[in-house]
Amino acid sequence: MTTVLQSASRxxxxxxxxxxxxxxxxxxxxxxxxxxxxxxxxRAERVDGILTILWHPxxxxxxxxxxxxxxxxxxxxxxxxxxxxxxxxxxxxAALQFALENGMAxxxxxxxxxxxxxxxxxxxxxxxxxxxxxxxELKRAAA
Length: 143
What we know:
By secondary structure, this protein is of the alpha+beta class. It contains 5 helices and 7 strands, in the order H-E-E-E-E-E-H-E-H-H-E-H. Helix 3 (92-101) runs antiparallel to helix 4 (111-127).
């Protein structure tokens, strides 16, 4: 059975003309921004209502992340930071940090669950530290 995220991955590959390259892509039909660092299957671990971590199928290493509700997240970022525009490259880590710091990540709980969620966000931030969302994808999210 094909998951929605796997369908998005295939669409990313098709848009790239059959050749895979790591890039953050916005998928308007699902309102997600997805970044995959390599062309492989993955296991999806839902962290909360926004972040999904994509793990290698056989190894305990990150191969991608997905942010759900990116249009809403991006609009809130632009409202709070006027220097953010649709015509710039947006560091993906900025979106992750914004979601966590502004309480947009659903249900931040007390104790061990909160620590685990924070760890996942920190893992995703390290993974996406050098990734930028291209202006073309931001314009699609802003539409």
